[in-house]
Specification:
alpha/beta; disordered N terminus; 3-stranded antiparallel sheet
């Protein structure tokens, strides 16, 4: 039987499957029956509950993590010609929001033993134009925040955390969402908490929260969403140029249910990650992720690396072998400096960030989601073992 036929003979195991149940369906139905579908009381409730969950003073619900990052930079008044330091190992959104302002994303290489940016390389890239640092909490565990915060304080820079992967996660017992000036979360379909699309901004600074809230809805005066309620008024004031970044009550209803399940879902992901680590240690060919002891990992991703000293095939070929066995995977991420836009516009080139390129070359994100069954995970482990045996040098 051909590899293609073999894949067709078994059900395809996706990279991710959201844990959505009857509770979410009921919550959405209640909103539909309420007649209030857009930003309203459910969003306010979701913001309060999320802020409490991460120990933040303020939370602003928005339409995506990209929107959250954009609003965070707008709130600190980023200007054309300014610079923002961020890792090359991240998704498009982290860099593109800087470009929205005509500012420059200054990319940093990974640490030799981590997918996070190397704190030792940051200070050498700080100039009089630098305004902020965006640490990315890759895969669900926190970046080296002590080093980042120390540098930020020394140079009077803002720290805006990209926590798209990191809910719920903690750094030295402090929840991600309470560290730094602003933190931005994602509720995209594959994330640890989903509203389909959506995001959240948390901050301890009330003035920053108030400004981002106004900016998230066209720059209209605070609580503009109430203008169609009994307590509201048709009269409003546009205080500054804003955006259309508000979350809806339909989405918030899903988020509230997901928030209640957060610890159970985290425990399920952690158990799956622990099994991957134990089982994959029994054969050679793949390097498993290491978790620092001071970090509580959210396990949004489980990223292995192909060991080309052991295997005769590369990462892309391993992914194809898994696909032929009916197993979905992903790669996080293609470093920003390898994309044509960053090369044409900013002059970045292949070879400039060797650690990131090395990490990327071997990285595979395995299926990992709360509803993943033991037989499904066994399929992945067995497939990797078969590949390791078949293609051993």
């Amino acid at each position: 039987m051909s590899a293609t036929a073999t894949a067709a003979a078994v059900s395809f195991l996706p990279f991710h499957r959201a844990m959505i149940g009857p509770e979410e369906v009921r919550a959405v139905t209640e909103v539909l029956e309420s007649g209030w579908l857009t930003t309203g009381p459910r969003v306010k409730q979701f913001e309060s509950a999320f802020a409490a969950a991460v120990g933040a003073e303020n939370a602003v619900a928005v339409s995506s993590c990209t929107a959250a990052l954009h609003l965070a930079l707008a709130a600190i008044d980023l200007k054309p010609g300014d610079e923002v330091i961020l890792p090359t190992m991240t998704f498009a959104a982290t860099g593109e929001v800087v470009l929205y302002f005509g500012a420059r994303p200054v990319l940093i290489d990974c640490a030799p033993d981590s997918f996070h940016m190397d704190p030792k390389l940051i200070e050498g890239q700080i100039t009089p134009h630098t305004r902020a640092i965006i640490p990315v909490h890759y895969s669900g565990y926190a970046a080296d925040m002590d080093s980042v915060l120390r540098l930020a304080r020394r140079h009077n820079l803002k720290v805006i955390g990209d926590a798209a992967h990191a809910f719920p996660s903690a750094y030295k017992s402090t929840p991600i969402g309470k560290i730094g000036d602003i933190t931005c979360f994602s509720f995209y379909a594959t994330k640890t908490l989903t509203t389909g699309e959506g995001g959240m901004i948390t901050t301890q600074d009330r003035s920053l929260a108030d400004r981002m809230r106004v900016l998230s809805l066209h720059g209209i005066s605070r609580d503009a969403w109430k203008r169609y309620t009994a307590e509201g008024s048709w009269r409003y004031d546009i205080q500054e140029q804003g955006f259309k970044y508000n979350l809806t009550d339909l989405q918030a209803a899903i988020g509230l249910v997901q928030l209640e399940k957060r610890e159970r879902m985290r425990q399920l992901r952690a158990a799956l990650a622990d099994r991957y680590t134990r089982e994959l240690a029994s054969f050679e060919g793949f390097t498993t992720p290491k978790t620092p002891p001071h970090v509580e990992h959210a396990w949004h991703l489980y990223v292995i690396q192909v060991d080309n000293a052991v295997l005769s095939i590369d990462r892309d070929q391993v992914i194809q072998e898994l696909k032929q066995r009916g197993i979905g995977t992903s790669v996080h991420f293609i470093p920003l400096h390898l994309h044509s836009h960053y090369q044409k516009r900013l002059g970045y080139r292949e070879g400039m960030f060797p650690a990131a390129e090395g990490h990327f070359a071997g990285a595979i994100s395995l299926p990992l989601f709360p509803g993943m069954t033991e037989p499904e995970q066994s399929r992945v482990i067995q497939a990797l073992q078969d590949i390791a045996q078949k293609f051993r040098r």
